[in-house]
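Entry 14. Ran structure prediction on the chain below.
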Amino acid sequence: MSDRLEGKRALITSADKYMGPAIAQHFKEAGADVFASTDPCLTQDNVDQLLKEVGEIDILIANFAEPPRTASVDKIDDDDWNILFDKLVHPLMRIVRGVAPKMKARKAGKIVAVTSAAPLRGIPNTSGYCAARGAQNAFIRAVGLELAKANIQVNGIAQNYIRNNTYYPDGILENEKFQQHLSQFVPSKRVAESVETAELALYLASDLCTHMAGNIIPLAGGWVTTTG
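Output, structure tokens:
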């Protein structure tokens, strides 16, 4: 593995879930000093304590995950709606808000959010999840433009159909009905390995990435190909 992140210190949130394990491993192999946090960042006190413990960082991987709550729009439960925003949207804002001042003072930094392609296309009966992930994407777009002036690159990976322990664990990949779904709706007809997201995150976090600001990059096997 190359030393593309040699000398860089990276914080990965929810490192035990979603794309956390794959990105942590990939970044370590690229030479980064990785702080893999499992704190869900549910309160500002949690975030303040985490950042105090971590110290100054060069890279933030904002990786948050929560299973969708399936319901038709007329049966959305308030608690289900709120928990999606509490675990996906608010933690993203808090952690970015927390790391921004030092990055701005240093005039350097990389922030990569692992979000979802779901709001780029829409999935019936998961409007709450699509709304929360869409809020993440909108936040990253705006913050990316704002912080670009300070030489901080902020971008998002809007993925789907990537192997991970939260949404696409090994068991579901063996399901025949799911395989039929892939064949019908996903042009690549497969679930990609987690290293694809990790490699994209590595590029966005590297010194080679200097000209991307507020981009939401679809990574979904052709299920969606535009940010709309």
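Residues 78-106 form the longest helix (29 residues). Will compare against last week's run tomorrow.
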